[in-house]
Amino acid sequence: MSELIGLGLYTPAEAGRLLHVAASKISRWLRGHHIGSHPYEPLWTPQVNLDDGRIYLSFRDLMEVRIADKFINHGVSPQRVRAAIRLASEIMGENRPLSTARFRTDGRDIFFQVVETDENGDQRERLLNLFRRQYEFRQIIEPLLKTVEFDEEGIPLLWWPQGRRANVVIDPARSFGQPIEAVSSVPTAILAAAGRREGITAAAQAYDVPAASVRHAIRFEATMEEQAAA
Q1: In which domain, by residue range, is 15 found?
Q2: 34/110 same-domain check
Q3: In terms of domains, do 63 and 106 share one?
Q4: Secondary structure (DSSP) of 69-117
């Protein structure tokens, strides 16, 4: 398991709970499927392979599914998303380009944000339409990944699934990428269970964390349960 440190590890069910995407849909996207006699290839190959025949996701895969689902919900077909991934992979040399900070959509096409330097050394942002393979001047729409922190290369590092105010973060370098309370770094599932069982004050003392950390965890887990039941 040491090779999984820093990658994060999620089953489709765990990923679906965090992303509010059906686990069966995630498995279908990552395993491929058939409709009648027509085969549909996976959208991409998952980063984690434990050689047990099951599908697992890394943190990067989690972010990739998050964006793929948003594109599809914006009206982009899975086939066009698959094609965009392949084209962007060729351009970027990156196996999981959707999880970077460089994608945009207008509901029909997918655009790849690039920075060009002209002959005078001035830089400007442009959008490359991945399907027409030409540059288009468009106002860049609001980034899809407002709650994600990226490194200088645009690779996702952290995800705040309910925004920073909720004080819950997903960090692949901690607790195998399970949701943790940001102040204490204790998994929310553990803190919330203790808080419900023993009371907030007792749970805070048992884990040596502020009472607010227990409240954050309880609130996060309750929201996740409500959304799962909806």
Answers
A1: 1-100+102-141
A2: yes
A3: yes
A4: HHHHHTT--HHHHHHHHHHHHHHH--S-GGGSS-EEE-SS-EEEEEEEE
Reported pTM: 0.78
Instruction: From first to last of the 230 residues of the chain, give the pLDDT tens digit.
Output: 556 678 899 999 999 999 999 999 999 999 987 777 778 889 999 998 888 989 999 999 999 999 888 878 877 788 888 888 888 888 777 788 888 877 766 666 677 776 666 677 777 767 777 766 554 433 333 445 578 898 887 888 999 999 999 999 999 999 989 999 999 999 999 999 999 999 999 999 999 999 999 999 999 999 998 887 76
| Token code pair at residue 89 | 């992979």
The total of structural domains in the chain comes to 2
Same domain, 66 and 80: yes
